[in-house]
């Protein structure tokens, strides 16, 4: 098969997969996770159930993929930064700012994340996603300690748990009451609070 044709097929598969994930996110936001079925996702996206099954195999695999895709690259530009204090602060401020865009994918992720506390079919996937997020946060704190920009007495795991809890909590508040959360202002405030918490008391200028 010629390379150009093969690339075209790959692009078609990627387009189909993206459309199915977008349809699943819409259904989660509109009616909740229990309303998501392979048939309804296919219908919403304009495909057959067979196409959905071919791409994901099961509802759980579809929801796993949705959770992963909706958070991948959520904060633009952070992935290109070196681990450390500044990347951590950029992530905090950028994450909260992105919540203000109220995208269907981010709203679906938060709804699924909340549902994962009581839904066994979601819990394993979201534990994995949260641990991956905490690992990135731990890397930032450890790098900051190593280069002297973060206090040496800080525990990376404690910070990772606290930051993740803060971001998810702000997201849920925004989901429930959008007018109560000015994401631009809150994002800046959170970043400044973390800068002070991680640097003050050691003689480091918090900037």
Automatic annotation (TrEMBL):
Coiled-coil regions, chain positions: none
Which parts of the sequence belong to the HTH tetR-type domain?
A: 14-74
Query: What is the protein named?
Result: AcrR family transcriptional regulator
DNA-binding region residues: the ranges are: 37-56
Listed InterPro entries: BetI_C, Homeodomain-like_sf, HTH-type_TetR-like_transc_reg, HTH_TetR, Tet_transcr_reg_TetR-rel_C_sf
List the Pfam families: TetR_C_6, TetR_N
Enumerate the UniProt keywords alphabetically: DNA-binding, Repressor, Transcription, Transcription regulation
Q: Which PANTHER family does this UniProt record tie to the protein?
A: HTH-TYPE TRANSCRIPTIONAL REGULATOR BETI, HTH-TYPE TRANSCRIPTIONAL REGULATOR RUTR
């Amino acid at each position: 098969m010629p390379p150009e044709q093969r690339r075209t097929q790959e692009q078609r598969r990627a387009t189909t997969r993206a459309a199915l994930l977008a349809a699943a996110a819409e259904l989660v936001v509109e009616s909740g996770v229990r309303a998501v079925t392979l048939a309804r996702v296919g219908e919403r996206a304009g495909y057959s159930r067979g196409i959905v099954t071919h791409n994901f195999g099961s509802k759980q695999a579809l929801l796993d993929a949705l959770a992963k895709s909706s958070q991948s690259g959520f904060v633009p530009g952070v992935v290109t930064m070196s681990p450390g204090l500044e990347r951590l602060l950029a992530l905090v401020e950028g994450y909260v700012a992105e919540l203000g865009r109220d995208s269907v994918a981010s709203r679906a992720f938060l709804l699924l994340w909340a549902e994962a506390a009581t839904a066994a079919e979601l819990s394993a996937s979201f534990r994995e996603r949260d641990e991956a997020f905490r690992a990135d946060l731990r890397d930032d704190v450890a790098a900051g300690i190593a280069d002297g920009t973060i206090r040496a007495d800080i525990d990376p795991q404690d910070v990772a748990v606290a930051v993740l809890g803060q971001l998810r909590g702000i997201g849920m508040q925004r989901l429930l009451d959008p007018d109560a959360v000015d994401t631009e202002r809150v994002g800046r405030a959170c970043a400044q609070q973390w800068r002070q918490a991680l640097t003050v008391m050691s003689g480091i200028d918090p900037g």
